[in-house]
Amino acid sequence: MCIRDRYPNVVMNTLFGAEYMAAGPVLSVLSIGFFLYPMSAVSVGMLQVYEKTRLHLLNSVVCIAVNASLAYVLIPFYGSMGNAALGAAIATTAMFIVYITLYMIEGYRISGVSPISKSLARSVIAGSGAGAFILAIDVAVPVISLPVLIPAFIGFILVYTTLLMALGGLEREDIELLKRIEKKTGLKMGPIRRVVKRLARQVPVL
Fold it and tell me: CB–CB of 34/95 below 8 Å?
């Protein structure tokens, strides 16, 4: 996600062609919201367990109001610059952030269970470190192209995996995620793939 959000135009050009490069910023903004959205899953479940249907309704009304209000303002604003879709994307992502915040606060107040698990905290710290690695590449290499992007992606996976191990080890979900990334991109990562497979054998199946 860090690479896709930092270099959306390169990613869109590589995957879909130059005619779709204009959609790069929209992809970046929307991916932030969809990336953060699962953080609310535990809190949403808590409200369902405690049958807080009124809170579900109020949260939905608030989120719809936020999305509609921001879209009303931002779509014409960015539309005047030829990118109305970006305004809609910002409004949607803002709505996701409000949604997540509401449910996390309410879930914690009702149940006393922290919505941020140790696994999530480790992933955020490791992701931040890997993101800093990408920013360092961005500073060192002013012009990013596909030949630079591929080694940067491999480096990102290495840094992320190393930090996860240092913070307490990979969980089964982390290993499955790395394997899906390799399968999705089609990149033959060699040493990374062998390390992931070795780690997968060491993680007990629940």
Answer: no
Alpha carbon dihedral 191, 197, 199, 200, in 10-degree steps, equals 160
For 14, 131, 137, 180, the CA distances from 186, given in Å and listed in that order, are: 14, 22, 23, 10
Question: Nearest-CA neighbor of 25 among 38, 6, 41, 44?
Answer: 6
pTM: 0.64
Write down the pLDDT at residue 173.
58
Model confidence at 98, pLDDT cuts 50, 70, 90, reads very high
**163 with 126: CB under 8 angstroms?**
yes
Q: Which amino acid is at 71?
A: A
d(CA 40, CA 109): 14
Per-residue confidence (pLDDT) for residue 166, from 0 to 100 = 78
Sign of torsion over alpha carbons 112, 116, 117, 121: negative
Q: Under a CB-based contact definition with an 8 Å cutoff, are residues 170 and 199 in contact?
A: yes
